[in-house]
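pls ignore typos typing on phone
pyridoxal-5'-phosphate + seq
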Amino acid sequence: MLLSNNSLAVNEKGNLTIGNCDTTELAKEFGTPLYVVDETVLRNNCRKFDSSMKAYYGKGLVIYASKALNCMEVCRVVADEGLGLDVASGGELYTALKSGFPAEKIYFHGNNKTEDELVYAVKSKIGRIIVDNPTELARLDKIAAELSEIPKIMFRIKPGIDAHTHDFVKTGQIDSKFGFALENGEAFEAVKLTKDMKHLELVGLHCHIGSQIFDIDPFILAAEVMLNFYLKIKNELGMEFTDLNLGGGFGIKYTDQDDPKEYNIFMEKVSAVVKGFCEKENLLMPFICIEPGRSIIAPAGITLYTVGAVKEIENVKNYILIDGGMGDNPRYALYKSAYTALLANKAGVAADYTATIAGRCCESGDLIAENIQIQTPAEGDILAVLATGAYNYSMSSNYNRFPRPPIVMVKDGKARVVVKRETYEDIIRNDI
Ligand SMILES: *Cc1c(COP(=O)(O)O)cnc(C)c1O
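k done
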């Protein structure tokens, strides 16, 4: 079984536990579907990244990419661990600021930030705004001038390396909706333009090459591409940047097939490359940011469901019908993402049954997993889907007007609600 960061275990009753809480008791107390996040795993993951940044590179900041799971309590824990925070919308920024997250450690991303969002970010004096394109650059310049502010900005660059899961391609690809292209001179021209902009301070460049990446080489290549561009800018424009943001995308173990590298190896190698390059080329050693999202929060979370019925279709397949689905976890419907699932109240017995897990939305594609091995199911069993901390709650919807599940945070045998379950009242809240 997949044990994420030693958070999960099986107790003497044969029930799955998380953070020393019996999951069947959690299901009883808080109802299902239920998101559960182990605070200890979340904190340990923050520390793992932070300590490896300190050990191998020194001056840098680990920034949690909050789109993976953004709610006020997660923001508070991340702030308490000393990390920075990525936000990708006004709503994520609002949540962070309301939670008391230090504004100077907030980084604002997005490929089409609206005027309102930019005004909000500038007025809030957040740490960095990562500008995506020339139109946005002009929009932000105007806003900053009107507000008499000088926000620190970075540019999102397409380094021409596209990495997803098991392989990566060095395409020099320009076809992405994110960022400034290098090869056609767009990025260089934009950097040049900022020399005369009195209300924007360009402190460095950013790249983010993909997600759920297991290989270290694409990160190294991306760092080299960025540093070579820093060198060109220094030589041709006389500008030197203080910051370099290398993005996130580190892979995690969803199933036994996944084999992510220890994060330390990444930081060790990337640090060596950056330090070596800067020494050789006499470049300022930049303050480095990395932006893990999934790898910080995904392993900390599980989702609990109640089995409503088992539908055995002879010579076709067996469906386990659960009380959630694509509304609370759209990742299988979107990308056929693989998950590990088990029956929490039968965690001690063998998985000798083949089943497809289906939700209750009016869509045949409303599945969580297909043809997986699991314990023999029955009505009333509690199904646990593992490693759902990232891109589940944050991608959830009210399709079919199902209320969203709550988030319960567990720690050392204690559980507390950090996001309440939606009610039918919430469902009609904005209806007139
Ligand atoms: C999504 C995103 C991340 C985090 O990606 P993960 O795969 O969750 O680590 C980091 N930076 C940017 C700009 C992103 O869009």
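DSSP finds twelve helices and 24 strands in the chain. The mean pLDDT is 95. more later
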